[in-house]
Amino acid sequence: MARSKWRSKGAISNAGNNAHQPSGQLSKKCSINAVSILLLSSVAILSGYVIARKAGLNEQTQRTIGLEVGVQNAGAAMMVALAIMQQPALAVVPLMYGILMNVPAFAFVYWSQRQSEQPALQGQSQ
Fold first, then answer.
1. Which one of 13, 53, 82, 123 is least enclosed by Cβ atoms within 10 Å?
2. 59-95: b (≥16 Cβ within 10 Å) or e
């Protein structure tokens, strides 16, 4: 009974139909999801960082808040989809998020490290 209730919702019922789509359409959906995930994670990291900066927090705390906001718990979303809702098709996007959210996170860490090294390098050249 609960399954039919969830299947009657438009977006959720479409997610369950991925197995019946031609591979080209599934590939296109995965590409759109991947771009969306990368944008979502990047915007979340930058938003957390900027808001922490505007709040006047120190640089280390700004970086920490940026990463904490951008790197979310995809495992919890997969657990809800698989264990509670018992719909494996709904776990695909959280799985992709769990993998792809690391790309902007690593880029942010790399950028942060470069930013913290620049003042040290400028002090050595003078």
1. 123
2. eeebbebbbebbbbebeebbeebeeebebebbbbbbb
